[in-house]
């Protein structure tokens, strides 16, 4: 209040921030910066118009003065507001938030249980990516492989994932060391008695997965969630040789698992609502958008992806130019 009165009584200068230019680069330099920003925006989101419109508005303010910039902003905003992109982005915004409301699971008043330790079976591309996502959110991880060579390769992949973040400036060396210290390697099931969630990420082989889930039932505590990262196999088939069908669930990540934001939580008719609520909570904690889907061929994403690929291949069979199909897909986004 005193500050405002001092300005009003002319004891303090009234600085109209709209007209401040002390932080602006000379015009030539500003244009170079904006040119670089445009190139970055096109690289990041080739099909989006609004980042470029924002840059145009800023340029107008620098070149023709602040009032001209504001007029351009008001007009540009109105036209963007009624674009299809705007409607779609609103849809994405609300639908991402709607994913956490699942009838028959989140409306029963259940609280997520505390997951303190996670085990991951398989240190390949997928397993190491899931492990990276977990340790980045401070979950201690037990990584199991079949032999020393594969285990070391898996840990090396996790290191490479983290080092890439350090190189990009997204992570400090100290944070890197701390994250890496959360990973423990294992060749057997001895330490599985203390884990709350297991995610199996081995090759797509039904017999192998059935054997693994039979072993997990033996070695894991009775409350432990048994999850599979399968993208195509029926979960009922995977859990066929167990008595724990109520805690078997799909946790389908997308490659690279520590980067891609989506997580499909696959529930069967036997999966308990508590397990779904627990996994939704883990999904949010590791900064993913979890969606709960049914146990059917391809779940949600691959189910949409199959016809898309089939259509492209059908056109190839009809003799259409492959590059033309590719351009049409790319142009569509």
UniProtKB/TrEMBL annotation:
One of its GO terms (molecular function) is (3S)-3-hydroxyacyl-CoA dehydrogenase (NAD+) activity. PROSITE patterns: 3HCDH. InterPro entries: 3-OHacyl-CoA_DH_CS (IPR006180), 3-OHacyl-CoA_DH_NAD-bd (IPR006176), NAD(P)-bd_dom_sf (IPR036291). Pfam families: 3HCDH_N. GO terms for biological process: fatty acid beta-oxidation. GO terms for cellular component: peroxisome. Keywords: Isomerase, Lyase, Membrane, Multifunctional enzyme, Oxidoreductase, Transmembrane, Transmembrane helix. Residues 117-295 form the 3-hydroxyacyl-CoA dehydrogenase NAD binding domain. The chain crosses the membrane at residues 118-139. It comes from the Eukaryota. PANTHER family: 3-HYDROXYACYL-COA DEHYROGENASE, PEROXISOMAL FATTY ACID BETA-OXIDATION MULTIFUNCTIONAL PROTEIN MFP2. In the central section; belongs to the 3-hydroxyacyl-CoA dehydrogenase family. This is 3-hydroxyacyl-CoA dehydrogenase NAD binding domain-containing protein. It comes from Australopyrum retrofractum.
């Amino acid at each position: 209040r005193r500050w405002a009165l001092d300005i009003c009584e002319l004891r303090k200068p009234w600085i109209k921030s709209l007209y401040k230019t002390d932080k602006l680069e000379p015009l030539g330099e500003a244009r170079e910066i904006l040119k670089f920003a445009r190139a970055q925006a096109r690289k990041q989101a080739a099909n989006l118009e609004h980042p470029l419109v924002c840059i145009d508005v800023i340029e107008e303010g620098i070149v023709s003065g602040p009032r001209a910039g504001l007029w351009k902003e008001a007009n540009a905003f109105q036209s963007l507001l009624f674009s299809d992109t705007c409607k779609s982005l609103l849809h994405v915004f609300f639908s991402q938030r709607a994913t956490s409301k699942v009838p028959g699971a989140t409306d029963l008043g259940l609280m997520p249980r505390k997951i303190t330790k996670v085990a991951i079976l398989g240190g390949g591309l997928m397993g190491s990516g899931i492990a990276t996502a977990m340790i980045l959110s401070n979950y201690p991880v037990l990584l199991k492989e079949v032999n020393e060579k594969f285990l070391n390769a898996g840990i090396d992949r996790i290191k490479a994932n983290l080092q890439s973040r350090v190189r990009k400036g997204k992570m400090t060396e100290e944070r890197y060391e701390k994250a890496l210290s959360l990973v423990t390697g294992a060749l057997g099931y001895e330490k599985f008695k203390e884990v709350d969630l297991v995610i199996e990420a081995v090759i797509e082989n039904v017999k192998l997965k059935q054997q693994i889930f039979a072993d997990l039932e033996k070695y894991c505590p009775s409350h432990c969630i048994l999850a599979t990262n399968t993208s195509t196999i029926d979960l009922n088939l995977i859990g066929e040789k167990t008595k724990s069908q109520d805690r078997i669930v799909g946790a389908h990540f997308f490659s690279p698992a520590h980067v891609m934001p989506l997580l499909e939580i696959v529930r069967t008719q036997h999966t308990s609502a508590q397990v779904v609520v627990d996994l939704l909570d883990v999904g949010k904690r590791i900064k993913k958008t979890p969606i709960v889907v049914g146990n059917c061929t391809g779940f949600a994403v691959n189910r949409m992806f199959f016809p898309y690929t089939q259509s492209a291949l059908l056109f190839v069979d009809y003799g259409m130019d492959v590059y033309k199909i590719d351009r049409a897909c790319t142009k569509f986004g």
